[in-house]
Amino acid sequence: MSAREQSQSCAFSAASRSPCEAEEEAAAPGRCLSLLPWDRFSAWLHCVCVVGFDLELGQAVEVIYPQHSKLTDKEKTSICYLSFPDSNSGKCFLLLCHLKSVCKDPAYYYGYVYFRQVRDKTLKRGYFQKSLVLISRLPYIHLFHTVLRHIAPEYFVKSEPFLEAVCSDVDHWPPPVPGKTLILPIMGIIMKVNVCLFTGFPPPPLTIYIQYTQISIALPTVHEVDLFRCFCPVFFHIQMLWELVLLGEPVVVMAPSPSESSDTVLALVSCISPLKYCSDFRPYFTIHDSEFKEYTTRTQAPPSVILGVTNPFFAKTLQHWPHIVRIGEIKLPGEVPKQVKVKKLKNLKTLDSKPGVYTSYKPYLNRDEEIIKQLQKGVQQKRPAEAQSVILRRYFLELTQSFIIPLERYVASLMPLQKSISPWKSPPQLRQFSQEDFMKTLEKAGPQLTSGLKGDWIGLYRHFLKSPNFNGWFRTRRKEMTQKLEALHLEALCNEDLLFWSQKHTEVETVDLVLKLKNKLFQADREHLPMKPDTMEKLQMHIDTIILALPDDLQDILLKTGTT
């Protein structure tokens, strides 16, 4: 009997939702004093599904666990289609979930699939086909991939009771609180996980140690795919691809299987880290997707999205997209990859088109020959793939940092001076972002300070400032700086003698001050403002002192008054 099994993962993201937000929400149960059944499970997974194949009915969701998990019929249908290959690739893979019923705002969830196919003569088609699917808000690709590899083979032997035991183990996991090292036991193994958010500059990796009885296996990170392996088929065009992702250009990845499609799309999205990719991306997109018509129409320009596809049908229906990356089966080369020229889109007409990048895009920056030579040398010297990926990731990181540091420096200059913050006035506003003013700073404080790459940096910045990635980045930075101004304003208030102020003003003005201070205290706690540790305590002491100086009737009212 021959068997074909493989676990893969796929990440799916919407522009309105970031991995950071998903992690922060998932960690929220840890802040509660009491937890209800399945609260801990929900911090890691939304649900676990089993999708089977019936010769007459096709794919169908056979099991959803925990049983109280809700999925609409449309969502179940989507999961079914995306849990099985849509082409004759003979490979196995991943999934996309667009779940609207489980949260207030539509959001793409991450799906992780273990697909199993074994020959079974008792079935009409001659094969047993089934997928075990983990659905989560968290982008912990490597973690859930590892979990699936461990639990799926045994599940297909022991069925539902084993699945219940798995979910019970997850329900005993501590919440994924950033900055903490967690011990996660699951069906006989213990995983030691250091959870880190996608924040910081650069973001720290999330490392997992799988501990068996006498064996310890260290996995690189939970968020990342094997970068060098993914970019091997387009080895000489990594810098151009970095530009396309940075600028939020529409890109199609045509691959022989969902696993190659998924890994390549995830590698593209991650190559601009620590900058967040703010457009949509679909590691595995099929003809059954609800946005199929929108993405294949020729009456409007393709949206800012990276699509991963496997069905040969897309070679014609997506031919109008401006940038197409065609890859063959991903393998680590045993010899130095041969240089492949960028091909024109008109050459992508047949299903047997060769791997390569099909685009008319002209990069703004000159190609960095040093990184190409360094990676080529690594192939010749049989350097481990992990080491090659580290080199490539460091290169992308330094390139992105060189690009973003001038923007960070300019935006920091928009912050009002601390001396302009008065406790008796509203916090000052940030100055407006001026594209021309920013461009003027590049002459003396541009990327040339940290990067030796030559080219049209000015043109690249002008294009970037019109992209979704800039809008998302600037929106985040503006929010952070606004919160910092609010925090500085509260600290200025704490340094004032508020009791003395209240004694010089009427009771009405004093009550108004107390209500405003209580509201600011509530907002500061809710928004986690970046304040000094004792600021909140000092502010509360000011409020209590002022209230105690008021008449008894007002004290009773103010002590009972909440905040909004």
From TrEMBL:
<dbReference type="Pfam" id="PF09794">
    <property type="entry name" value="Avl9"/>
</dbReference>
<protein>
    <submittedName>
        <fullName>DENN domain containing 6A</fullName>
    </submittedName>
</protein>
<dbReference type="InterPro" id="IPR018307">
    <property type="entry name" value="ABL9/DENND6_dom"/>
</dbReference>
<comment type="similarity">
    <text>Belongs to the DENND6 family.</text>
</comment>
<dbReference type="InterPro" id="IPR037516">
    <property type="entry name" value="Tripartite_DENN"/>
</dbReference>
<dbReference type="InterPro" id="IPR024224">
    <property type="entry name" value="DENND6"/>
</dbReference>
<dbReference type="GO" id="GO:0055037">
    <property type="term" value="C:recycling endosome"/>
</dbReference>
<dbReference type="GO" id="GO:0005085">
    <property type="term" value="F:guanyl-nucleotide exchange factor activity"/>
</dbReference>
<feature type="domain" description="UDENN">
    <location>
        <begin position="46"/>
        <end position="480"/>
    </location>
</feature>
